[in-house]
Amino acid sequence: MFTLKQKVFLVITLLIASFDFMYIRMNIDLAQQTLHESLVKDSNVLRSSYELVMAKEQENMQAMATFIASDPAVTAIFSKAKDNAEKGGEEALKESAKLRQQLYEKVSPAWKVVQNKFAARQLHFLFGPGAKSYLRVHRPEKFGDNMDDVRHTIVDVNTYKKAVSGFETGRVYSGIRGVVPVFNAGVSAVEKKYIGALEVGSSFNSLVSALDEQLNIGVAVFLSRKHIESIMWQDAIEQRFKNILVNCDCYLEATSRGGIDKIIKSEDKKFDFSDSGIERIQVDGENLMLTFFPLKDYIGKKHPEREAIGAVIFWRNIDKQVESLNETIKYNILLGIFGFLFIEVLIYFAIRFAVNSLEKEVKAQASNLIFSNWEINLSNNIIEKLREGVLVTDENKKIIRVNQAAIDITGYTEQELIGSSPKVLFSNNHNGTFFSQLWDSIQTTGEWVGEIWNKKKNNELLVEAATVMVVKDERGKTRNYLAVFSDVTDKVKHQRYLEEAAFTDSLTKLPNRIVLQQRFEQALKLAKQERQSIYCVFIDLDKFKPINDTFGHDAGDFVLTTLSERMSKTIGAEDTLARIGGDEFVAVINNLNSKQECIELLQKLVQVIKTPMYYNKQKLTLSASFGISIWDYSGINLTVDELLQQADEAMYQAKNSMTSDYIFYGENTQS
Q: 100 φ, ψ to 5°?
């Protein structure tokens, strides 16, 4: 029989053993939960990075499509092809083949450069309405097919005549695409004719490679076999894809690393494209974090109820994290056993509840300290290995921590940055409103994301893609500010180059037809608000063709650039002068108080155009015909296109006149 003391000791021992087991179980669960939460955060960052890179790639494709579509020579051939296609008949087919070859020869050299430099894969001309292929520059032998039911980006552009972008599968390739409308630039603004759509696309290869390089992760993109075989031609499928991955019944579109087939086959269940989430798996003894989410194409994003057509998968090695978890589990088990025995000894020597409570507190504090130190070391290692710059300030916005990437990007040493204000990097390219909005966003949402123009130590321009966050303690008090940034200077410069090429006349550097339309609409809107008048001046040079025929196109280019400079200096700085094609210009004047002031300006323009020019010691003299339409706030509410048409008609009236250099619309003589 047990004595009372033994019974009490046994009961206490069982209670302590139970609590000890629960304590060990709780710490193991907490360690596993902490690892899982860390992996979830990493997964969210990876998906956000994917969306950002995808958006940039779509912008680049649309910018390149806009650049090609703005070439008058390209649109002229494409327009002839559209007119010819509408005729029908055997002769039209022969002429269509000739025009297709001309268009291919025109764009093919530049297209090869774009392919090599920007990893583009598709260049495609299509007629509207719908989506009828006219020329695949990447597969010129394939043309004439209707893709209305599969190429929704093209159908939307031909329907709404607005540029769109997105991921979509075609007859030959799946790609990240930018599609823009194409208008014939060879006619007057009021007779602008819509031709069709132009598409530029790239593969996922550059996207997954960029993500792998930036984040040191494996990336793969899969497309379902059902989706691919319902759209692509069979010969394109056989040429593009080598095999089908059985577990997912899909095709591998792109991958940044090998071994993805082993990862897919390691899954016990059949891969489901509708799922998203993260998993920890083992492949060839390697612990991997697997992040996956559904992939939807352009039409899928417009209609979310449609099923996904593929999936994006990220994977990275987490051996160190798993090893750390196992060590934590082992430590907790050993600590639990040791604690149990130790407490038993204390109970045996009658140091019961007080000592037991004290020991538990000591163990808890020791465990927290070890775990905190491990977290700090892990955070430091992650920060130093990041390719993005990291800058941390205290609550007074004084820098207290930078990583090596921040030093490499800015050119400052750690000693020069620590203790300084982030203002040391300011370039004065932003006004006070920019920073007010930045801090308002941080105070309201806790973070700000965008591009900021700074400068390096050597005063070179530094454009950063940055995220600035506020760090608060458990009481909600601000303790730190954290900035994570990367150098995107070269990308921004390239983007600006593409934008300038798309919206500026390449010879005179004047705004082109697209910019004219935008500025004219803005000026008209402002004039309605402020009850002002607008004068639209259509300018056509007289006898310009004989200069080209007699002295050559270089002389013609000299005349156009010289007169562009003269006219730009003559009109007001707030007005717009644009070249809309050949020897035709349009000026939008909105800072005149009366028609008489407009006449005085026209007389100045007549004089600067008639002033002789000298090219290779040859005296060149020519004149111009001016047609003017007027928008008056008290009159009829005319549109931009109507004002341009009126000015065009008045210009032709002036050109046929023997006595008038300029004529106002609705008048038959010079005013």
A: -60, -40
Q: What is the CA radius of gyration of the chain?
A: 35
**Sequence-distant (≥ 6) Cβ neighbours of residue 37 within 8 angstroms:** none
Apex 304 CA angle, 302 and 308, nearest 5: 105
Residues 6+ apart with CB under 8 A from 565: none
Would you place residue 319 in the very low, low, confident or very high pLDDT band (cuts 50, 70, 90)? very high
Token pair listed for 110 = 């530049």
Residue 424 confidence (pLDDT): 87
Higher per-residue pLDDT: 8 or 166: 166
Closest by CA to 546, choosing from 656, 621, 625, 616, is 621
Q: Which one-letter amino acid corresponds to residue 473?
A: D
Token code pair at residue 453 = 């123009």
- C-alpha closest to that of 279 among 315, 306, 303: 315
Give the three-class secondary structure for 22: helix
- Residue 468 three-state SS: strand
How many beta carbons lie within 10 A of that of residue 319, not counting itself? 12
SS3 of residue 258 by DSSP: coil
d(C-alpha 426, C-alpha 276), whole Å = 41
What's the rounded Cα separation, in Å, for the pair 551 and 541? 17
- Structural contact between residues 269 and 246, judged by C-beta atoms closer than 8 angstroms: no
Q: Which residues of 128-211 form beta strands (DSSP E)?
A: 132-136, 164-169, 174-184, 193-202
CB 392 within 8 A of CB 419: no
Q: Would the pTM of this model clear 0.90, i.e. be above it?
A: no
| Chain CA centroid to CA 509, Å | 26
Cα–Cα dist 353/157, whole Å: 78
Q: For the residues 174-201, what does the mean pLDDT come to?
A: 84
Residue with tokens 């490499």: 408
CA dihedral 115, 116, 119, 122 (to 10 degrees): 10
φ/ψ of residue 166, rounded to 5:
160, 175
Rounded to an integer, what distance in angstroms lies between the CA atom of residue 465 and that of residue 462? 10
pLDDT digits 0-9 by tens, 450-459: 999 998 989 8
Residue with tokens 């790639």, as numbered in its chain:
57
